[in-house]
């Protein structure tokens, strides 16, 4: 079975709630209306009884004095009954009915009926009771008096169905209002659902277009509600995805370029060795160069693997307690032979007591080994490299300063980009693949650290600062 669309579910749910709500309110209101209409009808019976009694008072006086015949009185009573749409019965003070607008013969004594008993006490009330056929009849009676003396009772009656007709009319009016309000609410729900579904449909279309490779899809951000926020989030995501794919393409292209050069060198030298036309010294030189290029490719692959693990979240934070002083001494000893061979002075400036750093030893070695290696690469023979370590504000600050060739101001913003080389003219004279600083920055960020590089300019050296949290 096909699932309902969001718009259909919204309209059905909204309309259902409205119908149920209006139906509940209509039921409560209808009950109040029914009760009110019945009470109004019963009160109107009391008022009509009083009016009929006043209207017949003069005729009853004339009849009692013999100035009006009974037939004339019967006609007058019948006329009042027709105008009030009721049955009128005249009752004497003993409770005997002696004239009825319906022409019915006198019945049982009615003195004990509530409305008649109240009228004999000069009060007007109503009462409802069933007739012989089981129909509910509403009665009201009013006294007719002369000089304060009651001499007759006027009783009016009508079936309760008349009141039910009024109730039904009010129910129909209420139902019509409910239907009208429901129709308006459903129309509003349709409009609202359309206004919600339209941007969602645009979002779906744009997402499908992006999945198909069209990364230029954007949504209008002309709304100030959650839909507008969703559109802004989608556009931001699209920009990030587009930038990421551009970066990945550039990364793949640069990686291929970096691998192509050593592979070409290895292939050319292996072909020359295979031909066997080289002297022994040249053969040894080619073998050494092949080893160097293979090692260079190995370093590139290792850096790529490490970057992939770090950025993919597969390389978690280490929990080793590392002494920054011991780490620095270890790395300085490692690079000392290279520095000595080129008469470069390596200096460590650090206090004897420093807080430990919680990290992976291999991660920290990656960071500072790359920084020292870069300093050695770009510092000319006879230069100087200083590693200063200080504890400040809950951080360990590592500062590596060299007297090397420096960095041009226009290159500084790009030094952390992958495969970027500030010294493009000497790309092949200096080992490396341009991944070191990118890798260093990624590792530092893993531990909530940060790194900054500054240089006064070309030929004036460079300074790298790394801030690493304590503990």
Give your account of this protein's structure.
- The chain has 471 residues and is an alpha+beta fold.
- The chain folds into three domains: 6-166, Beta-Lactamase, CATH 3.30.450; 226-310, Signal transduction histidine kinase, dimerisation/phosphotransfer (DHp) domain (Helix Hairpins, Orthogonal Bundle); 316-469, Histidine kinase-like ATPase, C-terminal domain (Heat Shock Protein 90, 2-Layer Sandwich), CATH 3.30.565.10.
- The protein contains nine helices and twelve strands.
- The protein has helices at residues 6-64, 70-84, 114-120, 161-211, 226-275, 280-311, 324-341, 361-378, 436-446; strands at 87-91, 97-100, 126-130, 136-146, 149-159, 320-322, 345-349, 357-359, 384-392, 395-402, 450-454, 462-469.
- Helix 5 (226-275) runs antiparallel to helix 6.
- It is rod-shaped, with a radius of gyration of 53 Å.
- The chain starts with 5 loop residues before the first helix and ends with a strand.
